[in-house]
Amino acid sequence: MNTVKNIVLLIDQQSQWAQVYAGTYKNVNVHSLPFEPLLIGDSVDQGLRHWALSLLHYDLALVAVSPTNLSWVRSQLHHARRHLRTPILAIVQNLKPIAIQDVIDAGADDFITDQNLKTELPIRVKLLLQRLQKKLNYGSSSTISTAEQNALNDEYLVSESSAPLDAYTAAVATRYATHSQPFQQAKNTVVQRFEKAYIRAILVRNQGNITRAARAANKHRRSFWELMRKHNIDADVYRVSACPDQHQFVKISRH
């Protein structure tokens, strides 16, 4: 990233655990903002929708989501999504894949797991903003829904647990079967999207080093590079030091 990105971390009464993520990362400043006022009052106008204009001062907003505030965040995103112009990245903690997809369906643009935030945030922010900019410039011609694209998150699809991949493939298979799409065509779509997610995730973990990434994937370097070219993946995007400067961490109660 060439310029510093200013990000706001919205904290409600049920997401104080995320306060530790406020701070300065490489080219990313994360400021925390108490979200408690949104819990007061019955009208949805007093919630996240009311904050849409204020959030325009930031490049991106982080919303912490866990089982304790899942229902509330999902409702807030649903009522606000037509008014929000600031991208929303959900920090998820202890959520099952189906719950994460609910958050995406409600209006979040992407998600990152809490345990990976400190090492991957700058890269994930850069990729998200690039993707949204391309969508703005060229529009979306994909046959797969936005929710399904976001559900195909790199980290979850290559995790040790098979649950995220099972949840995604089941959802996509049901969608394609319902729309009578041929089996082979549907299968090829899922396989190609998994390939792309896997290559991106392994590059993130190896900071864009193609040789190390290929070795970690147990593939010949040339075969790995061919997959990168097939999916139009540029390793330079991942050659960014994503480690936060622990000495620059700050906590801001209000911005």
Describe this structure in words.
- The protein has one domain (5-248): Response regulator (Rossmann fold).
- Helix 8 packs across helix 9 (221-230).
- Strands 2-3-1-4-5-6 form a six-stranded mixed sheet, with helices on both faces.
- The chain is globular and about 50 Å long.
- With 255 residues, it is α/β, with parallel strands linked by helices.
- The two termini are 24 Å apart.
- Helices cover 43% and strands 13% of the residues.
- It contains nine helices and six strands; from the N terminus they run E-E-E-E-H-E-H-E-H-H-H-H-H-H-H.
Summed up:
The protein has one domain: Response regulator (Rossmann fold). Helices cover 43% and strands 13% of the residues. The chain has helices spanning 70-80, 97-106, 117-138, 146-151, 154-157, 163-178, 183-205, 210-216, 221-230, and strands at residues 5-11, 23-25, 28-34, 60-65, 88-92, 110-113.
How would the blueprint of this fold be written?
Layout: E1 5-11, E2 23-25, E3 28-34, E4 60-65, H1 70-80, E5 88-92, H2 97-106, E6 110-113, H3 117-138, H4 146-151, H5 154-157, H6 163-178, H7 183-205, H8 210-216, H9 221-230
Parallel strand pairs: 1-3, 1-4, 4-5, 5-6
Antiparallel strand pairs: 2-3
Helix pairs in contact: 1-2, 6-7, 7-8, 8-9
Report how far apart the termini are: 24 Å
Q: Order the strands across the largest sheet as they lie in space.
A: 2-3-1-4-5-6
Ranges with pLDDT <50 over ≥5 residues?
38-42, 140-153, 241-255
Helicity range of the residues? 40-55%
Write down the domain tally.
1
Broad shape: globular
Radius of gyration: 19 Å
